[in-house]
Amino acid sequence: MTETSELPMIPAARPVIGVEERAAVDRVLASGMVAQGPEVAAFEEEFAAVLVGGRTCVAVNSGTSGLHLGLLAAGIGAGDEVIVPSFTFAATANAVALTGATPVFADISADTFNLDPASVEAAVSEATAAVMPVHLYGHPADMDGLGAVAAEHGLQLFEDAAQAHGATYQGAPVGSFGVFGMFSLYPTKNMTSGEGGMVSCADEDIARGVRLLRNQGMERQYANEVVGLNNRMTDIHAAIGRVQLGKVWGWTQQRRANAAWLDEALAGVVVTPPVREGCTHVYHQYTVRVEGASAAERDRVVQALREEHRVGCGVYYPTPNHQLVSLARFAPARELPVTARAAAEVISLPVHPSLSEGDLERVAAAVHAVVGAGG
Ligand SMILES: *Cc1c(COP(=O)(O)O)cnc(C)c1O
Q: Which residues does this entry mark as bearing N6-(pyridoxal phosphate)lysine (predicted)?
């Protein structure tokens, strides 16, 4: 048995739930009123003020619901095409497909892993209604480039900001650019409400649309105006989210400090994640490339990091969406070469705010040992 096999596992992610969150939940439970109510309303206002420059926010029961309802409120449906990246979590394209519209996959830029405006431009057709970039791993998408393509072709712009709470592009927060922007509040995201999503809305029409759709199409009880769902957030979840909102900035600073440390420690061994000028990165994931690796070689690196060095790490995402059984019917005729290479080469290393200095040293030493030795 090697010495390292006795080390504790460094988790890839660790949600931080404190006594304040537990007290907040207890307060709601004690009130006896647990469904959507005053906690949700307060969470929406506070989230808007802290994270999206005051834009109207509407809370829902998951990030996926937020995308779905945002798309529906923006009028997306059968006959429309929405251009999305293939290199993302399947929820992005799932939400488009669930409206009856067609997700059209475009390629990404090699540095940030985000939608490439030139590839988006090449994917525009008569049916294109919108483009929905993802701010993947917490790095903002190229909003100027994508905004120019959208303006040129009269497309709506939406944002999947599930992984990017607090990231900024040219000084403005992500989630403040699109007709709507969605933030996930799943436990492994940069902040959580247990499950949940927040939709940041460009105007009151979109906000009203999302509010109606999350509540069976009702503003007034039993006066249903549109066909809707029950995608409401509970006051229990909102109470957790409100506490986390007060902590997310500090955690983001710690994520950035951890990333800066890893950048220096891993330079020359793997391709560390660059940050584009005018952007701030919130490091939902710290994702490196094992340049030139095949998927099998990369998978061996991941296995060695986990099993020999006890470093939790992930591959986000090993299969591009257009190659998933569920979404392959939407696969484009064109190849997506940058997406294919990213899916083979990426590894996300621990960067979460609970890492100790010793943990960071172990992560760096492990990567040096496994990749520096030739993988
Ligand atoms: C997490 C995530 C979602 C979905 O959010 P849920 O809260 O899990 O429904 C959507 N898009 C991306 C890019 C995500 O990472």
A: 189
Same domain, 281 and 344: yes
Is there a catalytic annotation at residue 247?
A: no
Nearest to 272 by CA among 132, 92, 261, 48: 261
CA 230 / ligand 1 centre spacing (Å): 18
Return the ligand 1 atom nearest residue 184 CA: 7
Q: Residue 226 sits in which domain range?
A: 19-106+113-245
Cα distance between residue 70 and residue 62, in whole Å: 12
The two structure tokens encoding residue 100: 């009856």
- The amino acid occupying position 159 is E
Q: How many domains does the chain divide into? A: 2
Domain's final residue, options 205, 227, 245: 245
- Tally the residues of the chain: 375
The CA distance from 201 to 315, in Å, is 31
> Which residue in 68, 139, 165, 189 is the catalytic one?
189
- Look up the pTM and report it: 0.97
Residue nearest atom 14 in ligand 1 by C-alpha distance: 162
Tens digits of pLDDT across the chain (375 residues): 455 557 899 999 999 999 999 999 999 999 999 999 999 999 999 999 999 999 999 999 999 999 999 999 999 999 999 999 999 999 999 999 999 999 999 999 999 999 999 999 999 999 999 999 999 999 999 999 999 999 999 999 999 999 999 999 999 999 999 999 999 999 999 999 999 999 999 999 999 999 999 999 999 999 999 999 999 999 999 999 999 999 999 999 999 999 999 999 999 999 999 999 999 999 999 999 999 999 999 999 999 999 999 999 999 999 999 999 999 999 998 899 999 999 999 999 999 999 999 999 999 999 999 998 654
Residue 353 lies in a domain: yes
